[in-house]
Amino acid sequence: MSKKTMLIKNANIVNEGTIFNGDILIEGEYIKEISSSISAKSADVHVFDAEGKYVLPGAIDDQVHFREPGLTHKANIETESKAAIAGGITSFIEMPNTNPQSTTIEKLEEKFDIAAKTSSANYSFMFGGTNDNLDEILKVDEKNVAGLKLFLGSSTGNMLVDDLDVLEKIFKSTNMVISLHCEDEATIKKNFKEHLDKYGDDIPVKYHPVIRSEEACYLSSSKAIELAKKTGARIHVFHLSTAKETSLFSNKIPLKDKKITSEVCVHHLWFTDQDYEEKGTFIKWNPAVKSQKDKDGLWDALLDDRIDVIATDHAPHTLEEKQNVYTKAPSGGPLVQHALPAMLEMHHKGKISIEKVVEKMCHNPAILFQVEKRGYVKEGYFADLVLVDLNNPWTVNKDNILYKCGWSPFEGATFKSRITHTFVNGSLAYKNFKFYDVNAAKRLTFNR
């Protein structure tokens, strides 16, 4: 059977800091040619007119929780990967704190097997570190696994790595990117006890950023960076939430040469502590959404390249779970369907260029994790492409939310930009709230 061939005409292609009008020839899974004008060489080429829409590389989300196995009442790989491609995210890296946890090679491969059968987006998984699984960490094949995830605060099960000797050994023993959740557990416990003694279980949610404070974040991040400098480890600090932490990171060298990198999530760029009154526990995340000053500091660091990546930390819980009182309402929320539209909304507000959105959501995750042949609109690369209409407003509501949990912190928000088509490995997987070829996804590989 011959490879399917598709020609996308009249597209505003966004890639590597430029936007240019041109055509893209896709042959099979790959981009064959990009040029200002390409003509179809035969009748069996499917010609698709982009009508001047923007064509972006598919986004790569380096931090999601898709809840499978073990927590599938909240979400699963099938439902959330569909929501992801509807949001222009064509590849994801999922976290190890499922049930059972991905802290052995056997459990990790079980997740890869599930994704091979059910994922609509390209996939990889992080291996989880604990205080006592160094032997398993050393068995991980770094060409086929995204990286290592360590919780230095706010973990589930036995995944809190709080033994400093173990942490140093892990830092010294792997070449993989070590992704970190940095919040100081002792500081949080002390703050939590003070508020629990005062309010009982029904702590007003506005105190969440007081409990999970700037101090807790900075203390943990700065210690991790100090250890990374001592050991030469390659670390990536997830979901920065404070302006203070941004001073720990540098923009002096290119991303590919950095040993210490960072990420910011969409919710920390969008919400502030002023939103707790309206949104309540629906914007309860760890680390917490903090002040306007923190949000401004995160934007500054993102735009001057101290922060390298925009991600989601997509972490769905059921509506029922989120509506509990503070101490019983879990932290986290679903974001993959709305992250790119939200960032494009920030473009409309003059906050960020489309080229910069693409850099932070597509190019940089590919560079940072050395993802093979993805994250760019380039000849020879996989045809993971997203078509965006920048002027086609839509409002987030229950009828168009695709997460299994059925809610979104963005409910009621109107986005000017609409993702109209998503191609995964050259196949049309999504078009205007309908799914098509959702079996084209592949396991990510890494050029290491």
TrEMBL record:
Catalyzes the reversible cyclization of carbamoyl aspartate to dihydroorotate. Its cofactor is Zn(2+). InterPro entries: Amidohydro-rel (IPR006680), DHOase/Allantoinase_Hydrolase (IPR050138), Dihydroorotase_CS (IPR002195), Metal-dep_hydrolase_composite (IPR011059), Metal_Hydrolase (IPR032466). This is Dihydroorotase. Keywords: Hydrolase, Metal-binding. Belongs to the metallo-dependent hydrolases superfamily. DHOase family. Class I DHOase subfamily. The keyword Metal-binding applies. The keyword Hydrolase applies. Residues 54-427 form the Amidohydrolase-related domain. It holds the Pfam family Amidohydro_1.
